[in-house]
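Minutes, project huddle
Topic: does the predicted pose make sense with adenosine-5'-triphosphate bound?
PN asked that the exact inputs be recorded in the minutes so nobody has to dig through chat later. Recorded below.
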Amino acid sequence: MSTSLPLEIAEFHGDGISSELSAAVHAVADALPIDITFHDVDLTLERRRTDAESSYDDAEKAMRKCRVAMKYPTVTEDASPNKVLRDRFDFSVIHRPVATIPGVETRIRGTVDLHVVRIATGGTYEDPGRRIGVDSAISIRLIERRPSFQASMFAFKLAEKIGANVTSASKYTIQRNTDSLFEEVAAGVAQKFPNVGHESELFDALLAKLIMNPEGYRVVVTPNEYGDFLSDAACGMIGSIGLGASASYSFDNDGNILLAMFDPAGGTAPDIAGKGLCNPSAALWAFSMLLDHVGQCELGAKLDAAVRSVISSGNTTRDLGGSLNTEQFTKAVVLEMG
Ligand code: ATP
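Predicted holo structure (tokens), as shared on screen:
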């Protein structure tokens, strides 16, 4: 999607370290050579406790206007804000890039540069299940053609752009009806991309092979829960479970991205909130994904690289063994971007 300036971004404020992450994003945005207007939406727990519906209405209004949003961590009390937003915006695909961060210690040899693309709905996550008597419980697992198609299309377009192959991963030999439907759709989409290689892997084998040969995988598309497992496993491989960024997308009937929301994957970190100690890297990477999405690809790449470069120089926040506070780290990133 290309954009005419100024760029308008809905900004969903949450809890804990949310305001510090937002301040870091604003510091970077202020230093960019483009006009950006943020449309603030208060999604703090305090507001949601008294005024949940209207806080989500505000989020929806801002999102429909801007079509792109930054979201910061929110506490889940009753309803999960992430689920409410996903339902309201009809998000069907989640994209989580996970790449080795130079300077961050890992237990795995090799370099990870992986894009996890997952269906955002269904799988085992939609139905909490029910107890049958005392000793049994069941839940229904849902795989649908439409989000399988959208996730596969997203994965193949991404792979085409970066010159990679696509691996679709599931348990199609066991889940013969559900996961076979997903694989059937992925294979159908593969035929539209004759220049992009495609292979299906059993999900358990994929995990083992990824650990043994991280360079062998660039774009993996999966049903909901497998993608969730895979992105956390991949984050473990790069030594930083809380440093990932994530994008959620909805699509129009022609398959174009309609709405896009970008967020740091970590939580609200109440133990360090308000102390200037949090690491804003994931929020800045989420912002770089947003810039890329709106057509500011060069700026997005520059921001992504600047964060990596500052971390690898050892100038990091306390969680990575450094001594910078959030503001100092952000300043270093701005300086690195030139
Ligand atoms: P939530 O309930 O929102 O998930 P949590 O504290 O249970 O909050 P996280 O927010 O993921 O879970 O935090 C886990 C640990 O990681 C905490 O010790 C927290 O301080 C640390 N942490 C999380 N995010 C960051 C960050 N951006 N920078 C530095 N440390 C962080």
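Observations noted during the meeting:
- The first strand starts at residue 7 and ends at 13.
- Residues 17, 73, 75, 242, 266-272, 278-279, 319 surround adenosine-5'-triphosphate (CB under 6 Å).
No decisions taken; revisit at the next huddle.
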